[in-house]
Amino acid sequence: MEIETSDSAARDANKIVWQMPDDMRLIARNYPVTQKGFSIELLKHRFKTMDKETQQRTIKVIQCLERNKPYRYA
Predict the structure, then answer these.
(1) How many angstroms separate the Cα of 55 from the Cα of each of 61, 63, 68?
(2) What pTM did the predictor assign?
């Protein structure tokens, strides 16, 4: 017979802890993570590791963030 555990005990046993990557931690020193500036700088920082197709989308996203325009109208 299987012993049932409470929800809180099961949650504690399977706890997954997320840790902020180093590049995000570095950018967060200068920009609050809730601001557009943080998103723009993070995209620029990760730009060199992206493939060509993703780089094109990233350029469009950065332009949209800077101009306060929806993605579809950029």
Answers:
(1) 10, 12, 20
(2) 0.72
